[in-house]
Structures are given as structure tokens and as C-alpha cells.
Design goal:
Shape of chain A: globular
Distance between the termini of chain A: 40 Å
Helix content of chain B: under 10%
Largest interface: A-B, 25 and 30 residues
Oligomer: heterodimer
Structural class of chain B: mainly beta
Largest sheet of chain B: 7 strands, mixed
Order of helices and strands of chain A: EEEEEEEEEEE
Strand content of chain A: over 45%
Distance between the termini of chain B: 37 Å
Shape of chain B: globular
Number of helices of chain A: 0
């Protein structure tokens, strides 16, 4: 069935690294996405990874993909207070459609 | 290059009224998707449209909800005879092509039904 799972809450101190985890459903998904939602705002595309990659790095963001375990993670280095938001992972499901399935979102709290 | 535009940003309706939510996709994008976010939940897919066509409406409630994306003008999500349970944030996304393309989201319309 379609189910994308995320832990609901993560609290870190400013300057630490944050790791947000996600397990997804469809091993044939071509892309997997991370979106960021600040309070009262829409979803901002943060990054994505193509399914034939294990890792993608983009400045402070590192995405790791373990296809065998259907596990996706987002690491934010040197976390700042401006990173406080809800982070959603998403996959197209079924993989050949335009429909995105989202996790419940992980609320990241960054303490000064 | 303007992003996805949605209006209104906030909408208050009384039970039984109609709600019309508008979405203008990014320039050059011809595919539009609507999602609903209930309080404290993730986004749930509702409908996927291309100009003048509904491609996938598997997430739309069977009654009271409809969507269109005319040849000219924005996409409209229409909710007739709203009930309190319709209170949610409704997000629109667009992509240049369809399946497999990255979706870019608008700021959302927050609907409150009194």
C-alpha cells in the first residue's frame, strides 16, 4: 500500500547537524523529494534525488538513499534557526503517475 | 519569473456556502495538481489536471468537489455546500510536463468553514 513514514519531531542546537529520516513505498520511484514548509507558508522544494544515486550533496544539504531498505534521509549541516520548519519527504506513487505521496512531516526545532 | 500563484490566501465560509479556490501555474507549466492538508497532517493528493483535461481525480471526494483547468485562465477548485470538515489548507502545484516532473507549490489557500 501507499505509505511514506517520517518521525514527527526533531530538536537540535544551532550549529549541530540534523538528520531527518523517511521510509517510502515504491522501489520503482524515479525521483524522491524533500520539501520544506515554514509556518503559514507553502511548500518549498528543497532538493531531490534520482533513484539511481546513493547520495546527493547540495551546500549544507546531503541526501542519502538506501534503495534496498527504501530509506531516505536528509542531513542539514550547521543547522541554523532559519532551518526551523516542517520537512516532508515525497515520492510519486504509483511511480508512473503525477501523484505525489507525502510523509506526515518532521517538525525541526532549532534551539539557539 | 513568478512562481505558482494562489488566491485567495485565506477564505472564510459559512456552512452551506460555496468556496472557489484559484491557481495560476508557473509560466510555461501546463500541468496542475491540487493537494489538501488537514491540520497536523501531511498533504493528500486530490486531482491532477492538464489544460481542459482531468488526468487523475482519484483523490477527490465523490460529492461537492470539482476542479477545472480551462484553456484560458487559472485552475479552479470548487467546493459546494462546504462543511466544517472541509477546513484545511489547499495547495496547488504545477509542472512543465506531467509524470516524472518536479512539482512546484503555491502558497496555499487556507479555508475556514464556520
Amino acid at each position: 500500500g501507499e505509505d511514506v513514514e517520517q518521525s514527527l519531531f526533531l530538536s537540535v542546537r544551532e550549529g549541530d547537524s540534523s538528520v531527518i529520516n523517511c521510509t517510502y513505498t515504491d522501489s520503482s520511484s524515479t525521483y524522491l523529494y524533500w520539501y520544506k514548509q515554514e509556518p503559514g507558508a507553502g511548500l518549498q522544494l528543497l532538493t531531490y534525488i534520482f533513484s539511481n544515486m546513493d547520495m546527493k550533496q547540495d551546500q549544507r544539504l546531503t541526501v542519502l538513499l538506501n534503495k534496498k531498505d527504501k530509506h531516505l534521509s536528509l542531513r542539514i549541516a550547521d543547522t541554523q534557526t532559519g532551518d526551523s520548519a516542517i520537512y516532508f519527504c515525497a515520492e510519486p506513487y504509483p511511480s508512473n503517475t503525477g501523484k505525489l505521496i507525502f510523509g506526515q512531516g518532521t517538525t525541526l526545532q532549532v534551539k539557539p | 519569473n513568478a512562481g505558482v500563484m494562489q488566491n485567495p490566501r485565506h477564505l472564510v465560509r459559512r456552512r452551506g456556502q460555496e468556496a472557489r479556490l484559484r491557481c495560476s501555474p508557473m509560466k510555461g507549466h501546463s500541468h496542475v495538481y491540487w493537494y489538501r492538508q488537514l491540520p497536523e497532517e501531511g498533504l493528500k493528493f486530490m486531482v491532477y489536471l492538464q489544460k481542459e483535461n482531468i488526468i487523475d481525480e482519484s483523490g477527490m471526494p465523490k460529492e461537492r468537489f470539482s476542479a477545472e483547468f480551462p484553456k484560458e485562465g487559472p485552475s479552479i477548485l470548487r467546493i459546494q455546500q462546504v462543511v466544517r470538515g472541509d477546513s484545511a489548507a489547499y495547495f496547488c502545484a504545477s509542472s512543465p510536463q506531467g509524470t516524472g516532473e518536479t512539482q512546484y507549490f503555491g502558497p496555499g489557500t487556507r479555508l475556514l468553514v464556520l
